[in-house]
Specification:
Helices cover about 15% and strands about 50% of the residues. With about 575 residues, it is α+β, with helices and mostly antiparallel strands. It has a 26-stranded mixed beta sheet that branches. Strands 17-18 form a two-stranded antiparallel ribbon. The termini are far apart.
């Protein structure tokens, strides 16, 4: 053990700089006042605890009538309390209110609690405001109502007349923990003349830690309506009246819901005679606005009509994950394993509508403005696109008449795989762009001078400066009604490769290889070039000598016509 005589010099050399401060008379008086203040607060707190423990809390039942009167005056409703009990949770007073009832102005029961437990926090003393470490409410019954004039009431209290609504919300956010267990929520809508909606076994938890607020809610609707509802949230904010400054995340899940039955209480934007579904959703908020949403949806046996003049779309099932992000001016949308299948129906004239099926597809679309605000930058991708299925689905979507007619005229079919596209530009023109995709069994109907084709397979890649295309097709056909008397040409195989470049308005095309076989002909061609120049206000075309010679001799083609005629130019 260190000797005191040796300790004193060591302390002196380390703390000697405090001597002028300690010797100051004002500092000594301030220190003395702090010590006395500490002891006064300490003994005052002890006296308060003793008074509560041995005088007030044991006789809390004697104050029940006064508590009922003060609560009724504060709420403007009639409040009755069956019994009040008091105990201690450590050094914190614990009050329990039993059989609490709140009646509205007409004397109808609006709010009922079988048991309320409130553990007081000693921070109530310095803050001069009632603060609780825990507020637990067991088996309450809450009545929500909308009258025929569209006025809302909570526990019989009109929302429009709640003068201190903000104060109540701030007080709730200031409590440490709030727990509601086994609640029953009754929603009555006199405006819709709907039957009462009852949610039972409602549990609610709220934890407040400064600016952070976490909550969770589960409720059980009637079995014929839906399975259990689960909602959770984690938010940061200070003043509930300033929601523009709040940020956080929320989660919602419902394992099963009869979408059609909920029409009694909810207005859908589309006609929905029947359907079932399940949903999980994650939502992100920033500055009080929805910034991000991700949803897993699964729908079965859904019938919906998107517009009164359109046929009903009957889905056997639809599922997948959809995500979206929103900014001040742009957006981003994505889908993962989106699939659907319609149900085969028979119309009154005995015609059967073919089933529409979209296989699991991933897609992503991004549309963002440039920093200077003068243009946009975008991108899109898709793992698989069934053109025929989308064209048929368009019959159930409220498109304009022109777009609907174009889809009928051209009747696109086929599959596009591995599509990726990027672009940058403004309302006037695209500055840069690129696209890459593979395609299979591609088909379009011929219209006027526009050629038709079917069974084309291959790949395509291009941008604003160059591009290339490859055909690897079997059992394909080309329809040129404005070129040949017999417009339809059928190929057993059709392979081709082409490249092109665009420089200063001049398009240079190089056809490096063409090979085909048909029932009446077979041929091949290599090394053909063509140039097309775009001038001001008009267009002109020119071909190189090599390309003209190649066209005259069919580009070294050899054709064996079974019809007994050799056609050449």
């Amino acid at each position: 053990m260190m000797n005191w005589n040796s300790l004193r010099p060591a302390l002196y050399h380390r703390l000697y700089f405090l001597l002028p401060l300690v010797s100051n008379r004002l500092v000594r008086r301030l220190w003395r006042a702090l010590v006395w203040g500490f002891w006064l607060v300490y003994f005052g707190f002890v006296m308060l605890v003793l008074v509560l423990r041995y005088s007030i809390l044991p006789n809390i039942e004697n104050y029940r009538a006064e508590i009922e009167r003060l609560t009724s005056d504060g709420l403007g409703q009639s409040v009755s309390i069956g019994r009040i009990e008091a105990s201690w949770e450590g050094i914190n007073p614990d009050l329990t209110l039993l059989d609490v009832r709140v009646d509205d102005a007409q004397g109808r029961p609006a709010l009922a609690f079988s048991r309320i437990e409130a553990i007081l926090s000693w921070w109530s003393v310095p803050s001069a405001q009632l603060k609780l470490r825990l507020l637990r409410i067991d088996e309450p019954t809450l009545n929500l109502r909308r009258d025929s004039q569209a006025r809302f009431y909570i526990a019989g209290i009109p929302l429009s007349q709640e003068q201190n609504e903000g104060d109540v919300s701030d007080w709730i956010m200031a409590q440490r923990r709030i727990r509601i267990q086994g609640a029953t929520l009754v929603w009555e809508d006199e405006l819709r003349k709907a039957p009462p909606l009852v949610l039972e076994d409602l549990d609610f938890a709220l934890d407040n830690d400064g600016r952070r607020h976490r909550f969770g809610l589960t409720a059980l609707p009637p079995a014929e309506l839906a399975s259990m509802i689960d909602i959770r949230g984690d938010f940061r904010g200070k003043d509930i009246d300033l929601l523009d400054s709040w940020s956080g995340q929320a989660y919602a899940e419902i394992g099963y819901a009869d979408l059609a039955v909920w029409r009694q209480w909810i207005d859908y934007p589309v006609a929905l005679p029947h359907g079932r579904g399940a949903l999980r959703a994650w939502l992100g908020f920033a500055q009080g606005k929805l910034q991000e949403v991700t949803a897993d949806a699964s729908l079965q046996d859904v019938s919906l009509r998107l517009a009164p003049d359109l046929p009903a779309l009957v889905l056997e099932h639809m599922s997948g994950r959809i995500g979206a992000r929103f900014s001040a001016t742009g957006f981003e949308v994505s889908g993962n394993r989106i699939e659907l299948a319609t149900r085969e129906l028979t119309t009154p004239n005995k015609e059967s509508r073919e089933t529409i099926r979209i296989e699991p597809t991933d897609f992503h679309v991004d549309w963002q403005p440039e920093p200077d605000g003068r243009g946009v930058v975008g991108s899109a991708s898709a793992s698989r696109i069934d053109l025929a299925a989308l064209a048929r689905l368009a019959g159930y979507v409220p498109f304009d008449a022109r777009s609907r007619q174009l889809l009928r005229d051209y009747a696109p079919r086929g599959h596009v795989n591995g599509l990726t596209a990027k672009w940058k530009g403004d309302a006037e023109r695209l500055q840069t762009y690129s696209l890459k995709a593979g395609f299979a069994e591609l088909a379009l109907k011929a219209q006027g001078y526009f050629p038709g084709f079917s069974g084309l397979s291959g790949s395509l890649e291009f941008n604003e400066a160059s591009g290339s295309a490859v055909l690897r097709s079997q059992k394909s056909s080309v329809d040129l009604p404005s070129v040949f008397p017999e417009s339809l040409t059928v190929f057993d195989t059709l392979n081709a490769q082409a490249r092109w470049k665009i420089s200063q308005g001049v398009l240079d095309v190089e056809l490096s290889r063409v090979e085909f076989t048909a029932p009446d002909a077979a041929g091949s061609a290599r090394e053909a070039t063509a140039t097309r120049e775009k001038g001001r206000g008009n267009r002109s075309e020119r071909s190189t000598d090599a390309s003209r010679r190649a066209c005259r001799v069919a580009l070294h083609a050899t054709c064996h016509w079974r019809r007994g005629a050799l056609l050449a130019t």
